[in-house]
Structures are given as C-alpha cells and as structure tokens.
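As agreed, record minuted below.
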Amino acid sequence: MNQAITDNELKHGRVISPASRGAVAIDLGLLGAWQVNEMEGGKNFPALEAGPFPSPFETDADSVTPPADGYILSGGKTDARDCVNYTNDEMSSKLGREFSWPLLNVDPGQTLKVTWAYTAPHTTRGYRWLITRDGWAPQQRITRAQLEPTPFFEDFYPQVPYYSYAGELKAKVEHEVKLPANKKGHHVVVLMWIVANTGNAFYQAFDVDFE
C-alpha cells in the first residue's frame, strides 16, 4: 500500500496558486495531493468523443474520451475525486455542515496569474480556459450546457509535430490569463493542461467572484 501511494505521488501536476477546488478538497482532508495531481481526462473537451486533436495539431496523440457532464471538474474521475464536482449542497451533505466553495475575488478583465507544481511535466501542447455561462445554475453540477461554448483563452505551442520539438514543449510553471471583461458574480473557471504525446489533459477548477 505504501509503495502504491508513493508511486501515485510521482504523477503529473496541479495548480498550487490560486486555490483550486482540488486544493480546497486537500485542505478538507477529502483528497491527497497525488489525487489532485492526477485529475486527467480526454483533452478534446468540450467535444464528447475520443479522436484526433484538431488542426493544426492532428499529429499529436489522439484524445481519449473527454469527461462526461457532471464529472468535468475532476477530469472525468468518478472515485473520491468526484467531490470537486459537488455543488455546495452536495458538499454540505458530505461534510455534515454548511459549506460553500470559497470564492476568489477577481475583477472583470483582470490578469490572473497561475502557478503549477509538476511531478511529471509531460510534453505540453498548451492550456485551455473555459468559464460558466451567464445565468448558469450553481445548484447543478457543471455540464457542457453550463459552460460557454468556446474557450475564453487558449495558449498553445505552435510547433508540430510534437516529437520533433519535445525539448521545447515544456509545461509552464507560471502563466497568465486575462479573464473575461463581461462577467459578474460567481462563476466557475476550468483550466486544462493539454499534453501532446498522450490522450489526456489535466483539469483544474476555480470558483471566482467577479466584483
């Protein structure tokens, strides 16, 4: 058992700043850091099916099946990591006390700086950012219908094929994104770290409050 835990701890990566839902779950004792490092699922999200990564990156490894609705924030994981998909009511029931996901106070259009800790920094295609629609329903789990249909930002390395540039396609420890300028109130942001040479992305989610 101890050896298995040690092996798991070596995998992949997670955002360490700002606090993600996974970080909150670690603080609550619901998840280990290694589990938040490994919230991986198909990288073609919000597509529904496995298959080639879109042009001009079709020489990257094909995507495995992307996360199902209701399990998006955990990268499709349905084990203990499902807790990051919970609504406030679901989490309150699990904890036996009133709970609300902590909100990160942000301004519309501000630049948000993100810091990752990687334990296995894979050959990276880039990062994709999605956000909930206006009028989304916080009392429901996040589904594709709860999200804006297109990402609000993508940061992809242009080099192809990936296997000729593996030394250049490095995971970014720090990167920045400009948040949408037209949002108000509570929203959920989904950040995907997309790997070039596997079928997966690593999913991290944040609750923000646009002031």
User: Anything to note?
Assistant: The longest helix spans residues 2-9. The chain is about 15% helix and 25% strand.
